[in-house]
Every structure is written in structure tokens, then in C-alpha cells.
Amino acid sequence: MSADRSTLQDKGGNDAPDDDTFEVSEILQKALDIENELQGCIAFSGATKNKQDEMRSHVKRLIKLVMEQQVMITHLMGRMSSSWEHVPTSYVEMIKTPVKAPRGPARSRSRSRTRKLHNVLVIPKNEQSSVDTRKQIQSKVNPSRVNVKVNSLKNVNKGGIIISTPTTQDSDKLIEEFGKIDEIKDNFGIRKPKLLDPSIIVFNVEESVTKEELLEGLREQNEERLIANLQVRTSFKSRFGRNWIVSMDPTALNEIIKKPKINCNWNRLGFRENVRIIQCLKCAKFGHFAVNCKNVELKEGPGLCMKCGQKGHKERECVSETPMCINCHDHNVKFKTKHDTKHSARDNICKMRGKELDFQTSRINYGP
């Protein structure tokens, strides 16, 4: 599919961009996978041999065109230097040369988890708001006095809060301190939240595939033998079939996440780790949907623009040339930080979105 990595060097001896070359190879591989599926359909079509040969000829011409278009697009995007030597330009070269993975660690299908958080869940025994819970807890315990580091506090359902700490020693010490205070012990439930099983989202599964067929295919056709706690959580319609969310054992996830695709029935399917971030389209904050937004000023009308952070219009109607993330802006004002704000509130480079992702991954059991 792609040329030998040793040939992809510029005249100065530097390697060509590994990630981009691998991305091109993935796209070309998808085209070849589709060709193989079409060839199978032709073989079982019942058409005469001459007609089958004619159809195969059309398929090969189409795939060749896809290959040539991809190379052309890649050149136009500047991803391939014109000085690279021996870049494959023909369909024959592309299908004869094996795909090589980029140097270094296997390409992960998930975000790198560089920081592990340890959480303490505080739930009031009587009905009250998370704001009140936070005030009561903070008034009774000072982390600096008990030598506990706290990364963040987040509101959760039932008037509760989750306190995130950097180490298990910090979370254990915090629980111990709470247990010494009668007012906290009598009015709140304190515990470490149960970690969730990790999950993946499998893309574009054929509509006709049932839940049972999907699970059987995943278990029996992948070398990892996904047999531990493999469960379907839900599925939803996509452009080309259905997307399925499947939870599994941490060991299985840590193995399968290294793979570019997984096998299921007659197909090799794309997938990625499923880490869900909920963001309100009214106030742009994380952790709740717009229908549950408690911001009275924004509940009616379009709410805040996710691009510029201003009220009165939706993101698709925004004419501002300069984006401004309302979440990073508010954090800078409140905590005197200096986060970059020149991005949308939904942009993956957003510092606050990254913190939310850290928090969500801290609730998942990735094993020891």
C-alpha cells in the first residue's frame, strides 16, 4: 500500500512525516477493503463469467481513480514533499507494497492518559443542591491543614459532588478526615465511586447485524478473544449502518485498542475508545445537557454561541472572525490563569475540555 519507509526521506536525510504517511495508507487500505467486498459480491452475483469480468474491470478502474485522487489531494495539502524519492504513483505499486506502521509505540485509538485522578464521592442524605453540599464540605475541611492535594470539585446528580485528587493517599486521607466530623458523617454519604468498565464505539455496523451477532463476531473473530464482561450498552443510527457502544474487560480494551480495526462477521470495522463528554449547548459548561441547564438567563433563546461566547445567536449564525472560548475565559477571570481563549468552546485544544476529559477517564477502570 505505501512505499517502504526507508525510501520516504528528503534530500537532507530526514524522515518524511510518519503520521501523515500512515494516514494515507489507512485511506488506501479502506479503498482496497471495499474492493474486496465488491469482488465477493460479484462472485456470488450469478452473472456470467464475461459479465463478472466486465464488472471487475469497472471496480479496478474506480479503485485506481480513488488511489490517484488520494495521492493528488495529499500533494495539494502539502503532506508529501515533491523531493521525496520513489513515492508510489501507480495503482500496481500501491497494492504490491505492504503497509508499515509508524516508528515508535503502536498508534493508540484513545487519548493518552497521562494523569490519573482519584475521586471521592459526596452525596447528601437529604435533598439539597450541589452548591450547598460544596459549601458545607468546604466550610468543615481545609485540605492544606490535613496535607491533602485537591485537583478539582465537580457537581453531580442528587446534590452530590466529586472531589478529584492526584493520588490514592490523598483520597484516602480525605475520606478519613470526613469520617472524623460528625456533621459530615451524619448528613452525607462518603465513598469512592465505582469505576465504570471501559468501552469502545464500533462504527458503521451493517443494519442487519443483531446484538447477538455483533457480540459473537467480536468474541470469536479477534485474537484477543474478548470474553470478559463484553456487553452492548446501546446503538444508534449512522450514515452507513449503526454505531454500537460495547463495554469490556480492562485487559481486553488495553489489547484491542492497539489495533487499527476489529473483525466482525464479513467486515473489518473502525472503532475508537468511547469516552463521553456532555456539554450544554446553552451555557457551554460540561456535565449537563441543554434541557437540564439551570442558567436562568440562558435557558430561553439560543443561549451562548459556542464559537465567540456571546449571547443572542447560535454557533452556525456567528459572524465573528475571532473565536473566544467562554470556559477558558471564565477560568482565567476566576483563577487568574492564562489559558488561551482563541478557540471554540467545543475545540479539542481547549484546556477546560481537556480537564473534563481527564475527569471522565478517571471514572473508568483501566486496570492496575
UniProtKB/TrEMBL annotation:
Domain of life: Eukaryota
Keywords linked to the UniProt accession: Metal-binding, Zinc, Zinc-finger
Region (Disordered): 1-21
CCHC-type domain: residues covered: 280-295, 305-318
Alphabetized GO MF terms: nucleic acid binding; zinc ion binding
Protein's UniProt name: CCHC-type domain-containing protein
Species: Araneus ventricosus
